[in-house]
Amino acid sequence: MKVIDTHCDALLKLQHAKRNAYKPEQLLDYRNSEKLDTNLVRLQQGEVAVQFYAIFINPDVPSDEKWQHALEQIDLFYTEVIEKNPEVKHIRRWQDLESLKVGEIGAVLALEGADAFGNDLAKLRTLYRLGMLSMGMTWNNANLCADGAGEPRGGGLTLLGKEVVKLNNEHHVFTDVSHSTVKGFWDIIELSDYPIATHSNARAICDHPRNLYDDQVKGMFEKNGLIHVVYNPPFIKADSKEATISDLLKHIDHLCALGGVKQIGFGSDFDGISTFVTGLENAAKYQNLIEALLKHYSEDEVKGFAYQNFLDHRPGLYV
User: Fold this and answer.
1) Domain residues for 75?
2) CATH of the domain at 125
3) CB within 8 Å of 127: residues ≥ 6 apart
4) Which of 61, 189, 202, 215 is the most exposed, having the fewest neighbouring CB atoms within 10 Å of its CB?
5) What gap in Å lies between CA 231 and CA 201, rounded to an integer?
6) How far apart are CA 114 and CA 43, in angstroms?
7) What is the pTM of this model?
8) Given CA atoms 231, 237, 239, 240 in this order, what sign does their dihedral have?
9) Mean pLDDT of all residues in the chain?
């Protein structure tokens, strides 16, 4: 069964390898590098039909270098992921999903945190032109748009952040709540036409700041938003670096109980996590999750989780 995955950090791994390489053979081959959870071969083995690729800038990067880091990752997206692999097609508009052929993989460019552009909206508009279709306002730290989930202050969107959400709406771009504070989450819900949690779980099952409270979950579903479950064990099972597929299914069960059977999807966080769900260690293992779900849900429901719910709620439907 084909799969849509709304979060991975392969671009960051590709960038780190390039910046640290002294010889060409030290670069990562996107097609088959064992160091990449979402290399092309593994995506094919797991039947991943669409993969989101996050641009992520480490908070330690000086402010005047963040834009350069973002451009480097975008360049790697084009040169290593798209141009060297004819099977991979850049999804520049949501309508492009309709033209994917059997055996092709759609690649979606996303931004994890507004740090990349600071308060320079010309840079943001450049990201739209380069094909960015999903944007998280923050990572865990604060920036000029909002506080992140790890910021003790717990603030919401700034005036700049609110302007950015409105620009996302105009460009039919998802606004991602996955690293938001609770206040920031509700600010986004109020303003966003296209809210999504690209990689978050249920806080009622695992009380972690990166997960969503039940009222947030219900707010997402009422706003026609999507929640894509994440495979990082500390977000699945409290105080644990180990988790099973059965543990992950508890989150899906809970989200369904809150009315989300038509609004749940997958957001692995592969290449951004260092511990893994047993049996779901990389993109090649995706069908293990599908098989487990089919034991508990109907085929139509599982198809929804895997890809159809996303297709039914993507911004392109409302253009």
Assistant:
1) 3-318
2) 3.20.20.140
3) 70, 111, 116, 117, 135
4) 215
5) 9
6) 28
7) 0.97
8) negative
9) 96
